[in-house]
Structure formats: C-alpha cells, structure tokens
Amino acid sequence: MTARERMLAGELYDATDPELVADRERARALLQRYTSERDPALLGTLFGRIGKGTGVEAPFHCDYGWNIALGERVYANAFCVFLDCAPIEIGDRVLLGPGVHLYTATHPLEVAERRQGLEYARPITIGDDAWLGGASIVLPGVSVGEGAVVGAGSVVSRDVPPGATVAGNPARPIDA
C-alpha cells in the first residue's frame, strides 16, 4: 500500500512520503492563488466537491483539498483550517465562524511510533444546517449532527447529536 492509501484507510502512514508532500504543495499553491485572486473556480479545482452558493473566505488552509466535500450554501469565514488527511464531509447550509479548525490528523499514543514520524487520520462529518461558532475546534473522528450548534471557542471531542447545542472545552450540551 502507498502512504496515501494507508492514510485514506485510517492506518498509520508517513506524512513525509513524496506523493503526500507533492499533494500538500499543490494545495498550498492553489490556496495562495485563491487568496490573491479570489477566483471561486480555484476552489472547484482544490476541493473534492463544492456545492452551489458555497463561499470560503481567505485566508483558508487545508492539507490536500481533494479530501473535502462541501455541500450547497456553506459559508466558511476567514482563517478556517481543515486538516483533511481523512475525509471532511460538510452538509448543506452549514455556517463556520472565523477560525474554525477541523482536524482529521492525529498521532499515535505510543512514543516509538511517533518517533518514526507516523500518524493516522479519522474522518469528520458536519450535518446539514449546523453552525460552528468562531474558533471552535473539531477533533478527529467526530460528527456534528444536523442542525447542531457549537459555541464559539469550543473543543468538540465527541459526536454532537442532531439539534444539540454544545459549548466549552470539552464541548458539553447546554440549554440554548
């Protein structure tokens, strides 16, 4: 298996693999062009899927881009970061405040594996009509349900049920 295949399968992989490095460099080049030109067509080249009416404010950062699927009428405010080593699926009409970070990448707990430079990734899913407040962070393997709200500055380490409102570090249910 290649490093990319291992990464996509959720197995340990070497992020310094030349193919992965080249893919990240491609994404950086497209993002630099997008930041300076603001041409939405560049996002269509970068992302695996982008729905109609979706807007992404610059600056924006991602690792690969091709592992990101955005639904229709998604709005990602400035300074969002998507570490898309595993798929990031975002539904329709999702609002992402400034500085929202979605992290699929993670590292082994075993020090010997970390010393080898190995990492792995878990997918993130954001359901339709969800709203993630500014500077919130979603950790690897987490799903945010349809219509859920994540308070600004929250760290989401567990799945958020549909319609729930969560806030804090770690994010916990709150009364809306």
Task: Describe the model.
This protein is α/β, with parallel strands linked by helices. The protein has a single domain, classed as 3 Solenoid (UDP N-Acetylglucosamine Acyltransferase, domain 1). 22% of the residues lie in helices and 28% in strands.
Total individual domains? 1
Please identify, by name, the CATH architecture: 3 Solenoid
Number of strands: 20
Which CATH class is shown? Answer: Mainly Beta
Number of continuous helical runs: 4
Summarize the structure.
With 176 residues, the protein is an alpha/beta fold. It is built from 4 helices and 20 strands.
Annotation keywords:
single chain; 176 residues; alpha/beta; UDP N-Acetylglucosamine Acyltransferase, domain 1; seven-stranded mixed β-sheet; 4 helices; 22% helix; globular
